[in-house]
Amino acid sequence: MAGPLDNEMKELLDSFLVETQEILDTLDQDLMQLESQAENFDLLNSVFRSFHTIKGTSSFMGFDQITEITHHAEDILNKLRKAELRVTSDIVDALLEVYDWLKILLKKAQAGDTEPVDYSKTMQKLHKIIHPESSTPAPTPSSPPTTTVAPTTASTPSIPPSGTSIVEAILSDKSFGTTGDYFTDEELAMIAKAFDEINRSMQSGSRQSTSAQDTQVSSQPLSAQHVQTTQPSIAPSPLPSSQLPASAPAPLPTTTPIAARSSEHPSAAKKAPTKEAASVPANAPDDKKAVAAATETTIRVDINRLETLMDLSGELVLGRNRLAQVTQELIQRYENHDFLRELQETSSAIDFITTELQSAIMKTRMVPISKIFQKAPRIVRDLSKEFGKEIELVLRGEETELDRGIIEELNDPLVHMIRNSCDHGIERPEEREKVGKSRKGTLILDAQHEGNHIVVSIIDDGKGIDPEMLKRKALEKGLITSEQAQTMTDRDAYSLIFMPGFSTAEKVTSVSGRGVGMDVVRTNIQKLKGIIEVDSKIGSGTTFTIKLPLTLAIIQGLLVRVQSEIYALPLSAVVEVVNTDLNQIYSINQNEVIRIRNQVFPLIRMDKILKTPTVEESLENRYVVVVGLADKRLGLVVDELLGQKEIVIKSLGEYLGHIRGMSGSTILGDGRVIMILDIEELIQASHHTIAASVWQQ
Amino acid sequence: MKFLVVDDSPTMRRIVINALHSFGYNDVVEASDGQDALAILYTEKIDFVITDWNMPNMNGLELTKAIRNDATFGNLPVLMVTTRGIKEDIVQALQAKVNNYIVKPFTPAVLKEKIQAIVPNA
Description:
By secondary structure, chain A is an alpha+beta fold. In chain A, helix 16 runs antiparallel to helix 21.
């Protein structure tokens, strides 16, 4: 079997993977909510449905381990729904364990890894919850129990007297199906019969048909029963296949030949086709696939197509800029010509549409930050338990959207910082009480837009960071000299936590204190061209603020002039701009620095670094653009600020390759190509002893 | 024959629809819950409903009851898909007058058999 079936299978697998991932995305949160809202029946149902759906689809896909474990989870949820169990922290723990396994199993499924995992411990927990009385571990069935049928001897259903409806008989029989979890063969026979009865009554309009013959055969074995009332043309099927899939025992021996049976019901056979069949030609247009219009409001799109759109819209922005510039020049040259007015109108219309289009395309790549925030409750819950802390988590601005690529990179740093705050930020309840705080600490995750940036803050009301302690640690580890420690501001001291190899945890715990964490946080934020700031007050808490560009492809740039050349700086990296007297510049260890308010920033004179030909003598007054990346800051001395512009980042291409200090280029409206400065490399260079000397090489 | 496949899981809908296509039933519409399904039933002529049991908003049982109470399509064949052959479920299904039920996971052959058991000429 080649092509089409394989494709169909692949499509199904993709659908399964995506859908299950989506379910898992919210499942852990729902589970934790359940812990505090045990009475929320809608929530309970929704959690039940999540497991239920995964169980159902995985059973088709042949992921037996997923089916098995979700089946057990579903059983527990079902008991909760029927109030046979009450939501406890232990149950939520066990279900979260199932969630963890599902994540692992889904990853394996995605990778095509069929090696089974050993989740027997979790299964035992689940089994204990479902059957608290039994002490022996569960013999874990590899398939849902629907495949097993109770022994036939278990009970004998009361056969309804002749002439009554089987459906009614079943419904009125209080004892029907009260023994065991699953039906006996006799009960199944009656059920099959009952469904047939419903079928017939439907097919013959509203007539309730029950003949003496029907009731008479109702005690006949199921297989005959089933076939008899359906259709002469189909082969003798096994028992109602729904109840008895492949592994079921063979049909009972007393099968009567079909032909004979069906002939007993000429009326049913004749009546059956009429209604349904008649309607077919009337309303069955031969559409290949009619898809319901109302159901889906979202579609999945290959990410590559979005990337292409993004690139094209970038080109369009360039063209728009060029058009605007040319229009402007024409107007200056041939004033007040009617044609030009039209051109100007058209140009501004295109300008407007381009901006809208570009933001619309950008939005297609936007994902709400809740994708990461929603992981926080689980982390906080587990850590509170582990450390015996009481932490209230507050999420704000979860709906704030940012580029998908950025979300992915932001995930690890954020998760790490949440852990950090729980681990060394917020104190134990007793400690908090001692200093007059409430027992419960608060951890706030906040996201909001600020112009073309997103600002994410992690705020705790814990013990704060002691800068002196940080300095001591750094000294002990030989990361700084005692001289440096003395001149260090508090702000600089906070930055120490981002240094590789720096860890303040007294002992290494499972969650933090491995000494790599904050270093990784910084690296990732740097990769995203973001800025991270630490603000802390001993005794009252710490705030980490991360500022990120909304997207990486099109940025707001600050155009600056350095002698005769124009450069662009990503605006997201600009912390502030000051117009300063060059006499304000000091030298420390041969490095130029500038003091702005109470902070000292290293300086780079752009004309020296870039070796731009000097066309004008330095003015006394020049601009210092303070740029930042992650926790680092640097002042760039430039000659003039030319304003803010939307710029599309173009790579320098293979021919030029990588040029130090430049992250790419862009094309201005007048067609000029200008370079975009790479803040990361500039900062690195400035931190390597004397910036200028490094650059001259 | 026009089928309406009702399931909140897109994957499950795909599975059922693939099976239907393989039997030559190409006229299939889908709905993600009972309410969606009813909206379709009011506007399109459907000949056969295959519905999941457990769905948000309106589950398969409620959908079946709503169908049975409707003057125009009250006799519409309904095949209920469930994951469990649990007793009270089946009794409830009978009460709601579904035409039959089928337990996940099922093979296409079983689905076909179930459909033909309800509509022999399909």
